[in-house]
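3.2 Worked example (two chains)
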Amino acid sequence: MNMLTKFWNDEAGFVVSSELVLIGTILVLGVVVGLATVRDQVVQELGDLALAISNINQSYSFSGVTGHTSSTAGSVFADLTDFCDTTADASGSEPECINVQIPAVAGG
């Protein structure tokens, strides 16, 4: 019975355990917020990359070539803008054609 009383009254590990729980909780909350920020920035950068690639003009043309005994016809391709293509990307705005939205769920 004496050992049970000593065990019950011993509080040496209580402070360390509560501190570890508090530190662990703060770390987990910080990691969740940090990962959400990283996700948003990665989506933004990928949208900027897509916008940069979409602004590359892929038009080409070449005229026909005629030799002594043969000839080839010329060709042309005109790159048209897509429905998402724009020429400006405002700072702090969402990337073109990419929306990261989570719909609200009713709490009832």
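3.2.1 Second chain
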Amino acid sequence: MTEARDRTDAAQGIEGVLLANRDRIVRFLQLRGAGDAAEDLFQDLWMRLTERASGPVADPLPYVMRAANNLMLDRYRSARQRELRDAAWGEAAAVQKPSVETLLISREQLAQVEQAITATGDRSARIFRRFRVDGLAQREIAVEMGVSLSTVEADLRRVYAALAAVRRQFDA
């Protein structure tokens, strides 16, 4: 019981520091390069610090600021790794030129995929394209098409099942 109480007291202490210094921390994150994402980073910082089991912190504000700085470093490293990975992938993709045979096979497979999607029905195909190609949320699609959310989900499952069957044919 005491351990749970200590954890709760520590979390409330950190929460108090976060609340009292919110503007200062957000400004710090903005100056460190977060820009418009500073508010989101503050929320991430809040989650990291309040969910973690920690003991009492002797000087909580520097602790919070160091955690904010570490969060920015993590974001920077992730972005850098993503850039390097994307650049490497782009170079690899640009170097490899598909053969005529590969192009013909790809076109044939694309035609089979299109046929499978179309075979699920007009509404299912439209819902699938709005969701996967246009990026609309399932709720938005339901409202737009005048159907229930469960209908949208069922139609998406139908299309996914058809695509899985096509994929099994490709793998065979």
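3.3 Remarks
Helices lie at 2-20, 22-34, 38-51, 60-95, 100-119, 122-133, 138-145, 149-171.
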